[in-house]
Amino acid sequence: MIKALAAVFICIISWAFIPIASKEILRGMNNYAMLFFSNIISALVLGVYLFAQNGIGALKKYSAKDYFIMSFLGFLGSFLFYVFLYKAFSLASAQEVFIINYTWPILITVFGFFILKERATLISLLAITISFLGVIVIATKGNLSTLKLTNLYADMLALLAATCFALFSVLGKKVKYEQKTAVFVYFLSASIFSLATVKYFRIRLIDTNTLFWLFINGAIINGVSYIFWFYALKKAKTALVSNLVYLTPLFSLIFISLILKERIEPYSIAALFLIMAGIGLQLAKKPT
């Protein structure tokens, strides 16, 4: 359990840099180019690591059906997820998109009821409702009386991204593949899928800052962190792991304020506390 918690913490710190990396990279290229090059870097780094650890033999033990399943998961969680997420980041503020996208731990709980056959409780449903209230606060910029979304397109893209990653996580936990090999195939297949977006590439002036964040994004935020993520999911309860991930927006808001110099609005803090209150309620429930 301690190793699983340590793996989650690595993911928390890594993913807290997603909005910062995205904003910095998008200064030099559009979201489609960012997706392609990030996936290429992820696949290369993971491929070198996999070969150094196990050699080519790690890829020989799976059937064509297994690779089809892994490729589908790669399409869902390493391609489509980022198509929606990066586009949302290109349209709205980092803190808004990031926190709305973080409905995916809630959706993991919902999908877990149906796919992993995890038991639903009244407290779990109440916790989900409280957390979704926090999302509404963010989407309405704290103006709950109107419930008018200020950037509906970006908000919907962020929610679609959340749905993709939640399904990816639940299905990825259900299948029984060695994590390093599976994650390598996820990003290799995502790199191939990304070729379909080449005609939409727009690359502007690329400086060392853009290249730095592109490498960090591909190698660590996307690539290596996925190995730790699925290790944690397989070694600990889904609800516990997904709930702990809600520490990520807390770190992210701090990083956004320090690095991107974006003002942290009071409604964002209020929404974050609501989301974490829902997660805390779920953690406090007695095990069944």
Report on this model:
- By secondary structure, the chain is mainly alpha-helical.
- The radius of gyration is 18 Å and the shape is globular.
- The chain contains 13 helices and no strands.
- The two termini are 19 Å apart.
Layout of secondary structure:
Elements: H1 2-15, H2 18-25, H3 31-54, H4 64-91, H5 94-101, H6 104-114, H7 122-139, H8 152-174, H9 179-194, H10 208-235, H11 238-244, H12 247-260, H13 266-284
Helix pairs in contact: 1-10, 1-12, 2-5, 2-10, 2-12, 3-4, 3-9, 3-10, 4-8, 4-9, 5-8, 5-12, 6-8, 6-11, 7-13, 9-10, 11-13
Features:
single chain; 288 residues; mainly alpha; 13 helices; 0% strand
Largest sheet: none
Number of helices: 13
Shape: globular
The count of strands amounts to 0
Average pLDDT = 87
Radius of gyration over all CA atoms, rounded: 18 Å
What is the N-to-C order of secondary-structure elements (H for helix, E for strand)?
HHHHHHHHHHHHH
List the quaternary state of the chains: single chain
Straight-line distance between termini: 19 Å
Beta-strand proportion: under 5%
